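Re: that backbone. Tokens:
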């Protein structure tokens, strides 16, 4: 199942190179998420979580916004069922809002 939401992007990291003769290329977006309570205690606030999207070339599409971070963006995520009670959340599309507004 896919769903759209507004996300706050705090940072972007490009990764590109080779390890043991195998090439790799990716872009990681650090997106704000709410902390959730768990069995070990209470929590308040938000943190960022890394989500990979595309190759290292994706970074170039965002570089011109470097002085605007954190910024709001339109995000599409895919939610899938895993084993037992687990779920997976994958970022499948991300674009800055029309005005690339700075998050407040």
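Recovered sequence:
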């Amino acid at each position: 199942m896919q769903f759209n939401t507004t996300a706050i992007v705090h940072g972007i990291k490009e990764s590109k190179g080779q390890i043991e003769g195998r090439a790799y290329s990716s872009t990681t977006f650090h997106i704000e998420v709410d902390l959730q309570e768990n069995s070990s205690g209470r929590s308040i606030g938000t943190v960022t979580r890394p989500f990979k999207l595309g190759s290292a070339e994706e970074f170039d599409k965002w570089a011109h916004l470097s002085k605007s971070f954190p910024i709001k963006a339109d995000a599409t995520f895919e939610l899938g069922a895993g084993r037992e009670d687990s779920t997976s959340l994958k970022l499948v599309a991300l674009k800055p809002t029309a005005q690339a507004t700075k998050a407040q």
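The chain has a mean pLDDT of 90. The CA atoms of residues 79 and 89 lie 5 Å apart.
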